[in-house]
Design a protein that fits this description.
Elements: H1 2-5, H2 8-11, H3 15-33, H4 40-55, E1 62-64, H5 72-85, E2 87-88, E3 94-101, E4 106-113, E5 116-123, E6 129-131
Parallel strand pairs: 1-6
Antiparallel strand pairs: 2-3, 3-4, 4-5
Helix pairs in contact: 3-4
């Protein structure tokens, strides 16, 4: 679980895909902690579900020619990626979005609750972009 959650594929997948993986992990952990004997079929099914959830984690960095000087096309690709990893919380009150600041060449993670900014965190551009 820790290896998958620290991977680029997990971090840069859509939030709903991450949630599907997280739910499957919790269900597998609950099943393993139960006192009852598990059937072979239950174990095989749970293993297959987890493997499928990992395969569905498709996130990847954008490959650019020069990180210091992104082209217009690369910036559009980055903005699209940032949009896809932005998400609403389950209760609908908290929104997390990522924003690219061209001048500082950094990414900001902005969390708002009920429309008010509760935190701003700087995230390195290299978390989203890699150079050829």
């Amino acid at each position: 679980e820790d290896t998958v959650k620290s991977s680029t594929a997990y971090k840069l997948s859509q939030h709903s895909t991450q949630e599907n993986y997280d739910t499957s992990i919790k269900e597998a952990q609950t099943m393993l902690k139960s006192k009852r004997n598990l059937s072979v079929a239950e174990v095989k099914l749970t293993t297959w579900i987890l493997q499928t959830r990992v395969k569905n984690l498709y996130g990847k960095k954008i490959t650019v020619t020069n990180i210091a000087k992104l082209t217009k096309t690369e910036i559009r690709q980055l903005q699209s990626l940032l949009s896809s990893v932005s998400f609403n919380s389950n209760d609908g009150k908290t929104f997390t979005r990522y924003s690219h600041d061209r001048s500082s060449k950094k990414i900001e993670r902005i969390v708002t609750t009920n429309g008010k900014v509760v935190s701003k965190t700087e995230v390195p551009l290299t978390d989203f972009v890699s150079e050829k």
